[in-house]
Write a structure and sequence with these properties.
- Strands 1-2 form a two-stranded antiparallel ribbon.
- The chain is built from 14 helices and two strands; from the N terminus they run H-H-H-H-H-H-H-E-E-H-H-H-H-H-H-H.
- It has about 290 residues and is mainly alpha-helical.
- The chain is globular, with a radius of gyration of 19 Å.
- It has helices at about 5-25, 25-35, 50-55, 60-70, 75-80, 90-105, 110-125, 140-160, 170-185, 195-205, 210-225, 230-245, 250, 260-280, and strands at about 125-130, 135.
Amino acid sequence: MSLLGDLGGVRDAVGRALFGLVAGPDGADNRARIHDTPGPRWFADDSPIRRVHADASMFVGGLRALLFQSLHPLAMAGVAEHSDYRGDPWGRLQRTSTFLAVTTFGTEADAQRAVDKVRGIHRRVHGVAPDGTPYSASDPHLLEWVHIAEVDSFLLAHQRYGADPLDQDGRDGYVADAARVAEALGVTDPPRTEQQLRERISSYRPELRGTTSARDAARFLLLTPPLPLVARAPYGVLAATAVSMLPAWARAPLWLPYVPPVEATVIKMAGNVVVGGIRWAMTPARVADESVA
């Protein structure tokens, strides 16, 4: 077998492992259903949301989103009391990635069914936070925070580590595309431009703070996720990269470090290497039987 063939085999093996981690045991069947089922979609093939959500930068963007979302004490209370993120972190990741895939790439009917299922789950998630404040996952204001923290994270990760970053029109288009899903989930008047997104995040800052549950979740996500030994070093780079994308005001409540010179050099370069490696592994090899020209 040629060296090129060997590399193709490695790529396929790593790609399958990564895909299995984020998509779960039913990932292949779900992918076929999502992409191959005929019918109209919410988003066109050339839409910004498809460009962002298909990119390997989503790996680091998703981790950053979880850290950012945890800063709202009511959102974090819901996660701490109703989510088995410690006992089944990969299951939670797989359900989230499947939802993103269905709503971004699936048929309108499948996308709506996925949204209806999530809204049904949200209706059952309610309680009282440790400070005595009642919360409900169906609250449009709380839903909006989860939405804008996610959109901001995915967009920033794509701008820094995406294969083909968006221009201003594309970034505004991505925020507008994501608003389509947010409205279906129950968000009232989500932002539709990058500037509106920034303004909306700023409006939430008085509500955000670090809680014991948020700091515990950050430690689990960054330091002690259940991973095989071989995956810990690259995951550590992804974790450092996700932290480096948080603004200083968002790190302090989570007791996360802020070292701009290192982040702008070492972590940025390492992040490019790891995200690039994920992109390479997730791209199907088609050259195993070809010779080098």
